[in-house]
Amino acid sequence: MTINKDKSLLLILNDFLISDCNWSLSIYYDIGYYLNIRICKMKKISVLFLIFMLTACAAPTRTDVDEFFVVSTGTIIPDSVPLFVDCLIDGFNQSHSGLTNFEVRQSMRSTGYRVETYTGSFNYLLVSADVFTDGRVVLHESSSAGWINTNGEKETFGHCMQNFESSIVKD
Question: pTM higher than 0.85, yes or no?
Fold first, then answer.
């Protein structure tokens, strides 16, 4: 297989994936032919796996509005915002067993706080709670949380809402 410098990466990859594997690493014809076919298939599979991994690594962020949906909303007393944030952080940390790798992060925003749960392995944002200084609270779930159980975070949000005697709306 020769690589032309004028070809784009996609064309080279396409040539590699659909090539008939006539190139050979064999010394003996009968053994080498078998090994050549196996090596060719393994390379094709590994390239496809690498492409899949690289495209799957594009985790959504909160700026990707179409990747998140509102799970529930509510209001709390504005004076209890810091206590509500503490309740969320403690509950989100307890939502997953110690055997799984999850991370809870808190960030201060100009309008309040944001508490988020990430998978530690792939750093995917799963659940995000916005707690505004005026008492509004919103729980968002990411589309990347499809296979991961986020019921713990949803229950925590509801539990914290009940503790601070507020109104809650489930969507």
Answer: no
